[in-house]
Automatic annotation (TrEMBL):
Residues 1-25 form the signal peptide. This is Protein BatD. The lineage of its organism: Bacteria, Pseudomonadati, Pseudomonadota, Betaproteobacteria, Burkholderiales. The chain crosses the membrane at residues 368-395. It comes from the Bacteria. Keywords: Membrane, Signal, Transmembrane, Transmembrane helix.
């Protein structure tokens, strides 16, 4: 019993040692790629699987695969399965050229994968290979002459492209609108994706333009391509042309140029000048020279230069010029033309663009203001006279209504006579003393009813005849006077 236990423990240790030896012998590193057919621009998944390795799998950087491959992603995982320790690393790579490309060898602990060579097809089965072409307009540009560069992607089919971001150490690059159009390529009409830029060579000599990597999507799957760079030579400008001179015809837009101005006011001519590579110093030189050429009677009051907010790559660098004017004398003023000298690359000769300002009419408004003031004063006097006349008419009408009311309310012949005489016979005459004077002042013809009514009232006043119906006489006199007042 005493020897049995040590012997059993020894046997168990030997069995465990025997089991560990096959496990150590099974440590491995495998590297595999998928899909089986590698296609230019399509993703390739490179999977590394380590089994029972003491060392961890290495990490990779994009520089280890450049320039033939683009590393976009790597995922790692580790765990245990059936008592074995496993590590996996999956790298997503994009081949950037077709032909035979190599993947680097991998070493992890005692495991090793040799370098792999893969054949990258130019296109998938049944598809035409993607072609790249570049076009320059003009084909032989000068330094500081803007040109249009197009990159054509031919045979992309259903790819949805992302606009590339090219780079150049020798030129300024500004993007233009992308287009899709049909072109005849090698005698066959094909759909072409066109990327365009405005390129401005900064100096004479070789210019290299790297388009970078172009990304596209097909049914949600990413594609990556590397078009070849563009290289061209920018010609040197003639030595007789100044270094700060304009290259190519500038574009001039008139934003505001008033043709009339009141004397004493300040006006502004606003122009928009556009040209590729145009800088502030060039614009100031043009504006100051024009400002100095203006005659003194224009009253130049300063120049302001600002970069336009709506600059476009097609137009180039755009600046707004504001020229302030404050003429001191009235009259018609004609400014000299704005002269823009430039080098014309098409003719290789100097050329000039001109803008003729409008005829500026300066109006002295002081005589007009004086006439308006006098007219206003006269109108005010007329208004006052009219108001006075209306007031007099209202007062007279009120007095006449009161007198007519007194006629109607008279209780005897004496009161009736006084009420009659209170009514004016004619405007502007004093009050009559008697009825006869009133009729004379009124210049009434003899057949007028008031003559008969006046005689009847006289008889009643002096008692020549009895007046049995005084109210009827009063009503008749009131009616006759009221009728005469309405006719007036």
């Amino acid at each position: 019993m005493t020897l049995a236990r040590p012997l059993a423990a020894l046997a168990l240790s030997l069995s465990l040692l025997a089991a560990a030896r096959p496990a150590a012998a099974q440590a491995s590193l495998q590297c595999r790629t998928e899909p089986a057919v590698v296609v230019l621009g399509h993703p390739l998944h490179w999977t590394l699987t380590a089994r029972d390795l003491a060392a961890t799998l290495p990490s990779f950087t994009p520089a280890q695969f450049a320039p033939d491959w683009l590393l976009t992603d790597q995922q790692g995982a580790s765990g245990s399965t059936d008592g074995h320790r496993e590590q996996t690393a999956t790298l997503t790579l994009y081949p950037l050229r077709s032909g035979r490309l190599s993947l680097p060898a991998v070493q992890a602990g005692g495991g090793r994968c040799p370098a792999q060579t893969l054949d990258v097809a130019a296109a998938a089965n049944g598809e035409a290979p993607l072609q790249w072409r570049t076009r320059m307009t003009p084909a032989r540009p000068y330094a500081l002459q803007a040109l249009r560069v197009e990159l054509w992607a031919i045979g992309g089919g259903n790819l949805a492209w992302t606009t590339p971001q090219p780079r150049s150490a020798q030129a300024q690059i500004a993007p233009l609108a992308d287009t899709v159009r049909t072109e005849v390529i090698d005698g066959v009409q094909q759909l072409v994706q066109v990327f365009a830029w405005r390129v401005l060579p900064l100096q004479a000599g070789e210019v290299a333009m790297d388009f970078g990597l172009l990304r596209a999507h097909a049914f949600g799957s990413l594609r990556v391509y590397a078009p070849p760079p563009l290289r061209f030579t920018a010609r040197a400008l003639p030595q007789w042309w100044p270094a700060d001179g304009l290259i190519g015809a500038p574009q001039l837009q008139v934003l505001s140029a008033p043709a009339q101005l009141p004397l004493g006011d300040t006006t502004a001519w606003r122009l928009r000048l556009s040209a590729p590579g145009l800088d502030r110093a060039q614009v100031l030189r043009v504006a100051n020279r024009w400002n100095a050429a203006l005659p003194a009677r224009f009253g130049p009051a300063g120049v302001q230069i600002t970069r336009a907010q709506e600059s476009s790559a097609e137009a180039g660098d755009t600046w707004d010029i504001t020229l302030y004017l404050r003429p001191q004398n009235a009259g018609r003023l004609q400014a000299p033309a704005l002269r823009l000298d430039y080098f014309d690359p098409r003719t290789e000769l100097p050329a000039t663009a001109r803008w003729m300002p409008p005829l500026l009419t300066v109006i002295d408004a002081r005589p007009l203001h004086l006439a308006i003031g006098l007219g206003g004063a006269a109108a005010l006097l007329l208004l006052l006279f009219a108001l006075r006349a209306v007031g007099c008419w209202a007062c007279r009408s009120w007095r006449e209504r009161r007198a007519l009311q007194a006629v109607w309310q008279a209780t005897d012949a004496a009161a009736l006579k006084q009420a009659w005489l209170a009514l004016p016979a004619r405007r502007g005459l004093p009050r009559a003393a008697t009825l006869a004077q009133w009729l004379s002042d009124a210049a009434l013809p003899p057949p007028h009813p008031l003559h008969l009514l006046a005689e009847r009232l006289q008889r009643h006043l002096y008692g020549l005849h009895a007046m049995p119906d005084f109210p009827a006489l009063r009503r008749a006199i009131h009616a006759a006077l009221a009728a005469r007042r309405r006719r007036e």
